[in-house]
Amino acid sequence: MPTNKYSAGIILLIVGVIILLGKIGVFSVLGAIFWPLLVLIPGVLLQVLYFGRVVPAVTLVPGGMLVVYALLFIICNIFGWESLRILWPLFFFGVAAGLYEYYMFGSAVPRVIFRVSVGLAAASLLVLVIMLMWSWGIYLVAAALIAAGAWMMFGKRKRW
What we know:
The chain has helices at about 1-25, 25-35, 35-50, 60-80, 85, 90-105, 110-155. By secondary structure, it is mainly alpha-helical. The protein has one domain (about 35-155). α4 (about 60-80) runs antiparallel to α6 and α6 crosses α7 (about 110-155).
């Protein structure tokens, strides 16, 4: 009987500590930081299940998408959600990554899947570069143009 009383005491102690930590706000802070794991874990699990030969290759598409989206959400958690106004093209890149995985590891997958994945990845990265240029990269373009103009005006000239 003393063992049951001891076990019940430990369970009550753990439940009390969990309730107290919840009321203090520890879980809300941890949830705000680590919630992208709820997206990452199913994505990785789908891939593990495929490589374990439990599910068909088509499950690599949502698996790849979820992994890319979880990484995007982690970046937004770290650098702030306003960075999503620049990084939104990575949502399309997630689809491209999932399709590429499906093409690479699936059997008898049509080549058009590869073309679509590469085209979608290239388009999303191009839009991402444009978004980066639009936000802060325009200053680099302006500086490069000023330097090129100054070099053309004041640089050594070759005589023909």
